[in-house]
Design brief:
mainly alpha; 4 helices; binds fe (ii) ion
């Protein structure tokens, strides 16, 4: 069973960002499977690194897009991203290959992020930008 799954209700109406979110879900699921199969640090560490690196890449791409769109709540959104990155960093420092338990904690955290941040924050910019666009279309 997959841990997190993307569906159309999470679409922000931007193909690139939707694809990045899908890729993030894939990586979160990869971490889930690695933990489920009881893999040790040799498997877990590269999965964690790949995931964390991708989160950073995605956040900066998303921020660049919002900047281009002059999104009014950009700063607040950036702060949210920063908060996530800091929390992930704290996990990684604690984790440091010592125990899969913390990797599981990170999985819970990211799974929650995937559902809540996209639903609560990303969909907010999506509706706001689309509203703007339809206003200028008139
Ligand atoms: Fe975001």
């Amino acid at each position: 069973m997959t841990y997190v799954s993307w569906d159309n209700s999470l679409s922000v109406n931007n193909k690139d960002i939707d694809n990045q979110h899908k890729k993030l879900f894939e990586l979160i699921n990869k971490l889930h499977y690695s933990l489920k199969d009881g893999h040790g640090d040799t498997v877990l560490k590269p999965v964690l690194i790949e995931l964390v690196e991708y989160v950073k890449v995605h956040f900066s791409k998303e921020e660049k897009y919002l900047e281009e769109q002059s999104y009014s709540e950009l700063e607040k959104h950036k702060q949210e991203h920063k908060k996530y990155i800091n929390e992930i960093k704290t996990f990684l420092i604690k984790y440091n290959g010592k125990t899969p338990l913390l990797a599981r904690e990170l999985l819970l955290f990211l799974g929650k992020w995937a559902r809540e941040h996209i639903k609560d924050e990303d969909l907010k910019y999506s509706s706001s930008l689309n509203e703007q666009r339809s206003n200028t279309d008139m």
